């Protein structure tokens, strides 16, 4: 049976790849407490396992195709935040990302030299210990450009996968443990207390223990005002300002059988039937407990919309400042997404260009607000393949033809780095020209998840036949070296952020997690602090480190190879 399966997989390598992907997602789905390998590392293990009994041929063209698609998707995703972050926002987190990622590269090179690792093992140790699987791809491309015999290059590429598999486990678990447990102890802080204080500074109110309200549910109701109601004789604007802590709006009213739009200067009278939006308790408090609720279908027949808006204007304002604008009357904010992460909502949260805001309100109000904030993101199922293809081609062309002098060497950026830059540029341009290069979120998710998982699975298939012998060659030294590479940037980043940058402990630990692109570590900080605010430190650091750690795959290969 095994002989038949081996022959089948060798004959149909494309099916072996699908088997590795399926096995990878299955392995990656297992939870060990809060830790899981995830589909990418799971695909690496699945590929290595299949490679133990079947020497599956791997197409270098297919690997390159998948990896370039993945890198474009990553660049496209972080593009709206990357240049904005570099330019002015979250500079402390950016500095933290630079220090952590730079330290990781330096320590990886030193440890590889001390242990005597070749360029493949060194790159795999870096990608696994710093949990950046994308670095495997850039390292593979760099190895492919080395002036070495084909067989030696193939061995080095296989070593990348071996070292990544060995070092990833401690890299992931170590980052989660450090950010959520060891880090707070070294700082001598209680994360929950620090998070509560930070929430108060940002104006975030908890609705339940350990939860933060990201959206205030509202009502749209019709009430008849008593003759002596507190708001009788007041203008609509005065009534809406009765309690500034609540967002309460009168949209229209029925008077003497006629429906009238509620302009801010319209004076309310007893007996008016008003259509109001707001939290139910606010409506009762502001109007009158005696206000009679009516079922007035015609009055309440107002079309509401829920739309996502790409923020291209009004950046730099706090939510509180934006909420006081005239165009925000009648408008509610359901959520804010920055990159792929949803942010906790508070009055002092600063809006940044490229944020995606989910707005709720009457159709006219949402459209009016979009004119002041940015374009409405209309759902689309079509991908601009012209922009996608040209961006990868032109980026890859630039990466392959532009050489940077490094000592006595002239090093090209490589097609992978070029594709990443192409994605960054397109992602940034769409914040200024939203209809340019549109790609649905689902398509981007497929590029970044399946693209990398398939690439890593093929790397595992390639490394499988020599995995055991390579592991015997490096053994314990590689494992210990990887642990040093994981912990050193975490420790350096922790003390640099605390004593040089003077960062808030919760934001610092979120930033350290972002600096190692370890979302699970950030989630662990949120769990330990019982608050989501750590994401505010994570989001500025993540795109910077995501780019740098990917580039380090090329850098460490060149440095370790010592090519004359």
Q: In terms of topology, how is this protein built?
A:
Elements: H1 2-11, H2 13-28, H3 38-51, H4 60-87, H5 91-115, H6 119-129, H7 134-144, H8 150-187, H9 191-202, E1 219-224, H10 236-240, E2 249-255, E3 258-261, E4 273-278, H11 280-286, E5 292-294, E6 304-310, H12 319-323, E7 332-338, E8 341-343, E9 356-362, H13 363-373, H14 385-401, E10 403-406, E11 409-412, H15 415-432, H16 441-463, H17 467-500, H18 505-515, H19 519-529, H20 535-561
Antiparallel strand pairs: 1-4, 1-5, 2-3, 2-4, 6-9, 7-8, 7-9, 10-11
Helix pairs in contact: 1-2, 2-3, 2-16, 3-8, 3-16, 4-15, 4-16, 4-20, 5-6, 5-17, 5-18, 5-20, 6-7, 6-8, 6-17, 6-20, 7-8, 7-20, 8-16, 8-17, 8-18, 8-19, 14-15, 17-18, 18-19, 18-20
